[in-house]
Amino acid sequence: DVTIVWHRRDLRIDDNPALEAVSQIADGCVVGAFIFDPAILKSDMVGGGMVDFMLGCLQELEQSYAAIGSKLLFLYGEPVERLLHLSQALGANRVFFNQDVEPLAIARDNAVKAALQANGIEVRGFIDIGLHAPDAIATQAHEPYKVYTPFWRNWIDKPKPAPCDRPQKLLGLPNYDKVAAISLPSLKDLEFSHAQAIAKSGEAEALRLLEAFCDSNGILRYKEGRDFPAEPGTSMLSPHLRFGTVGIRRVWAATVTASDRVRSNEEQIGIQTWRQELAWREFYQHVLFYFPQLADTAYRPKMQRFEWDENPTYFEAWCEGRTGYPMVDAAMRQLNQTGWMHNRCRMIVASFLTKDLLINWQQGERYFMQKLIDGDLAANNGGWQWSASSGMDPKPMRIFSPIAQARKYDPEGEYILQWLPELRGLTQAELLSGNIPPHQCKKRNYPTPIVDHNIQQKKFKERYQECT
Ligand code: FAD
Question: Of the residues 128, 149, 181, which one is the last residue of a structural domain?
């Protein structure tokens, strides 16, 4: 009796529904598997930083399996073929995995299921990506939601599942001779490189971050702290939620513990605001599940007809953080150097690319996926479509002024100077003016603004009116 647990974006053993289900089967052997799928690795929505982060998680997961008596096997190739081969080589009669919401992942999983079942192998998928399955939340008319606020109201009212137990012991197989497994590849083996100083990966680090955020004032002060990119006001858990080094039920339980400990209404609001972000994550999963076309096109038909500019020079300036708008440039440098960007800044740079440079949001979406270590189709696409006025936002016309945003959210210019050290020495007024004197720019090899925000936003609005 052998069960394979196929790991994909659940790179942990704690609070893992697929592993818990398999642990409950008496006397069965359990083997973990992870497949490096060239179709994913070669896509233009994946970058070296993200893969490096993932490899760190996998290294730790391999050790975790060994520590509880089993093994995590690494395979390379097409998943249907690899899993069929692995199941036959191990004599496995079950394959368990935690489900995904991305259209390509769903198609792949359906193909795997069909092929394995045709060979007499039982296949089971579990809910793990969110607290609730994407189809567990519906309007009274049994329709999917398209607007966040009613989704949130429904989501928050639903009882939340408890974390699954961490398995203490698994029964591994006596030998793996017949299996064409590979050892954990290096980044170079997978033909990636990156120049980012990425965050620490793995399950232990995820739990440390969760505790640090929820046991401290972090979560209690979240409502005030989350919008100031110079402050450590958010959890930094996104790459861990992306790769599942922490279970979402474990995350929820930490918010309940925090909530039980506080008395003041203000602090409860901090916790509730953070839960709203967890619900945003699930809202974007929900809509991607029901409207898979979001992955390829603007949701609003009007925006499918919008005339974007082809402008490689502007795009490159945006990517490199050389637009002459310090808040935009600081944010892009943070992304390029660390693989992470503060949420406020993601909104600012996305608005700038689409509303100031009039460049198609899909170019920005792709660049983010190549650079972010938390790059996640549902959240990233949702964020980009929201910023580009092309998504489900009921108030779609939002244009951020990069100058007003900097004044409001980085009033001391602290964040700007952290990422643009060449601007040190300027007065605060110069930094936040949106118009650094040209001689100062020249001296510092920093560009003057490549576009005029007021002119460009008018242009955007005109084109928006034109496309009916
Ligand atoms: P916290 O503020 O501590 O929030 C906790 C968790 O909630 C996050 O880790 C994340 O999983 C989730 N979350 C928070 N805000 C959002 C949101 N607006 N939408 C969906 N989930 C959210 N998030 C990603 O995880 N991957 C992406 O690829 C991604 N791309 C984005 C692109 C754009 C243009 C925008 C505007 C936002 C994007 N976000 C993305 C959402 C958000 O910026 C990040 O989740 C957040 O900055 C991560 O930091 P944190 O873990 O400290 O978040």
Answer: 128
Same domain? For 143 and 226 the reply is yes
Whole-number Å distance between alpha carbons of 245 and 237: 9
Q: 283: CA distance to ligand 1 center in Å?
A: 12
ipTM above 0.90, yes or no: yes
Q: Is 87 in the pocket of ligand 1 (CB under 6 A)?
A: no
Q: Is there a single domain that holds both residue 153 and residue 272?
A: yes
Residue 318 annotated in active site: no
Question: Is the Cβ atom of 281 under 6 angstroms away from ligand 1?
Answer: yes
Among residues 314, 307, 303, 252, the alpha carbon closest in space to that of 277 is found at: 252
> 286: domain range?
129-163+203-290
Q: What are the two backbone dihedrals, phi and then psi, of residue 98, each rounded to the nearest 5 degrees?
A: -95, 135
Query: Ligand 1, atom 15: nearest CA belongs to which residue?
Result: 277
Say yes or no: 87 and 154 in one domain: no
- Asked if residue 119 and residue 15 are part of one domain, the reply reads yes
Nearest-angstrom CA–CA distance, 449 and 429:
16
From atom 13 of ligand 1, which residue's Cα is the shortest distance away? 277
For 91-103, give the DSSP string: T--EEEEE---SH
Residues 14, 245 contacting (CB under 8 angstroms): no
- DSSP E strands, 313-399: none
Check whether residue 375 and residue 387 sit in a common domain. Answer: yes
Q: How far is CA 361 from the centre of its chain?
A: 17
pTM: 0.97
Same domain flag for 15 and 143: no
**H/E segment holding residue 57:** helix 48-67
Catalytic residue, chosen from 252, 361, 386, 419, is: 361
Rounded to an integer, what distance in angstroms lies between the CA atom of residue 27 and that of residue 171? 7
User: Which is the closest atom of ligand 1 to the Cα of 372?
Assistant: 28
> Tokens at residue 268, please?
């409860």
Q: Is 155 annotated as a binding residue?
A: no
Residues 131-165: tens digit of each pLDDT: 999 999 999 999 999 999 999 999 999 999 999 99
Catalytic residue among 277, 311, 414, 430: 277
Q: Is 274 annotated as a binding residue?
A: yes
In this structure, the answer to whether residues 141 and 274 fall within a common structural domain is yes
Residue 95 contacts by C-beta under 8 Å, 6 or more apart in sequence?
A: 3, 4, 6, 83, 87, 112, 116, 121, 122, 123, 124
pLDDT digits (tens, 9 = 90+) for 284-314: 999 999 999 999 999 999 999 999 999 999 9
Q: How many domains is the chain built from?
A: 3
* Contact (Cβ atoms closer than 8 angstroms) between residue 221 and residue 80: no
d(Cα 233, Cα 246) in Å, to the nearest integer?
A: 20
Tell me, yes or no, whether 190 lies in a domain: no
- Cα dihedral 313, 319, 325, 327, rounded to 10, equals 170
